[in-house]
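P.,

For your records, the input lines for the assembly:
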Amino acid sequence: MSGQAVEIIGRRVWLLESGSGIPLLYLHGFADIHSVKPSWLPFHKCLAQRSRVIAPAHPGCAQSDENDDIDTIDDVVFHYLELLDTLKLDKFDLVGHCVGGWIAAELAVRHPERIRKLVLIGASGLFVKGALIGDIFMNAQPEFGFSYASLREMLFASADQAEALDMFPDGKGELEDEVRRYQMLRLSSRIGFRPPYFYNRALRNRLHRITSPALVIWGEKDNFVPRSHGETYAKLIPHSAELKIIQGAGHSAPVERPLETAQLLTEFLAN
Amino acid sequence: MAYPYLDKDFDKSEHSGWVTVPNRLWNNQKARGLYQEYIDQLAYADELGFDGMVLNEHHQNIYGLMPSPNLIAAALTQCTSRGKIVILGNLLPLHLNPMRVAEEYAMLDQMSNGRLVAGFAPGGGPETFNYDVPSANTREKFWEAADLIVRSWTEDGPFAHEGRYFPLRYVNLWPKPLQKPFPPVWIPGSRSPSTMTEVAKRGYCYFLSSRSHGGETHRAQQEFARVLEQHGDKYHPFRFGILMSTYVAETDRQAREECEEGVWYFLKNCLKGHLRREGRQLTYGPGVPYIPAPAWREYMKNYTPGRKLLGDVENWDELEASQSIIVGSPETVTRRIAALIEKAKVGNLLIQFQLGNMPDLLARKSMKLFAEKVAPQLRHDSLIQFTREYPVLNVEPSAAAVQR
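Structure tokens returned:
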């Protein structure tokens, strides 16, 4: 396990890599590596037992350079195309959580041939009428000057569970965790604040282009990206298994139920 | 320009006075004539000899009912003749095309016979939510818009603007503003060095939008003076303004008695969601991430969660200590504002007289007392001070304007 900086068209991308085997590109979400924690979480460690896990930090997150030219999800996708070329990843497993899942889906519809298997966990990216993706920005503003309970409620099954309190504590957390959280919100404000809110209306009708087997995983109580988004992904991706629900988890299944979620992934990736 | 008809239990029953404050609370029976009352109050300031009338832009809130200050400004061009019409300011990132602001400001300058002070503001957190303005590039977008507007006022058109955010093929302003080279530009800030730097580069006036005036005002003045020097410019008091509130009555005791209801209405209701920790404050924080991450790291180092904001003051003494709202007899108010001017060397006082649900009659009485018994002394003393401290500069008469 080591962190390294990779340079793509003059910008630094920070990434962690661990394990060996088939390369697995992991794209992070909000309660995750790079967006809160500096290093691997138990979920990623499980994956690294069977795969070569590569986890880049999104532009402007952790030690990755910020890119002021990012206006839409397309710009993020092209950022990742550059990274894939630099890392010489021609065929790989792609796993994305939350916003990372959106980016994964957008990559998959553009370059289905490069993806061996696709996993989306609580992925944003779709427009589903009547099921708006939550407003993470308003909930990132503390209540009573210190409480992040509503943010935790959005990202986890319950605001009081230990993982939630560890990653999004009330008051002030570890300074560098605070900075990483801020960086992730700043990137997100570029692609998810104004309509479209964390979605791309065109994505739905492009999902049929995905050729790899796919697995869509959702927490039972996702208060950020409603479950109907998972159902839609599972239905419209041609080779997708049925939507898998992680009982008792909210939006951040990899953090809330790391072993169970990793187990689902390893089974799917091994088959 | 608050919405003054909220029930007494508003603070208990509602989470915020901004963005999500339910508009079922708007009452047409009560609010009929409210805009006329506010416009007349501003026109009264002109009659009393204030240097200007200040308007600002806010959306979806009970703090300020002016989503379009330009409409009120247009009304003022027709019922006033002397004072400056100061718009602080149009929120540029909320516009699809900043030329709309260039046009309306040019119209207002013509309609007012050259009385416009053109303020540009980027908008705070609440406006971000109201208009879905992504925060990360707000500042960049703001300055591109401001520069385009001023260019359209000063350069002959048509020309093409090859901007990042507002590319335009045909910039060709009709009408042009009356004032030459262009109307004075004021930019609000809350002591961020980057805003001061951008203001200094362009030779504009800086206006401190924080409402508390302890040591902070003096520090802001020093910082701004330093930034101006770095840009080969020199500070003088009319490059700098502050927002403050005051209430004047015959005696200290009477002043407090008369204004207290309005003051608490303003602090507890109007500032809820903006400058209060109660509920959810939307003005600044990680959900509106407009400052770069390194600046956020610096901010977080000194950040105390749950600290009190202006609207969290619990009693009158705390409020007095904040120096945000200066209340008293003409003597008291003169003394306290004079001390502020002396220390902070500030030439432009943007004064809010009507607070919260304060009745029109009381606001007018306070304005009149201020104009007759406070302003003359302040003008006189500050002119002497400024002439002494800034002798090489051609110092203009002191300015005091009524803030709505």
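Two observations worth noting. The interface with chain A takes residues 125, 128-129, 132-137, 140, 277-282, 285-289, 292-293, 296-297, 300-301, 303-307, 309 of chain B (CB under 8 Å). The domain at 10-403 of chain B is CATH 3.20.20.30 (TIM Barrel).

Regards
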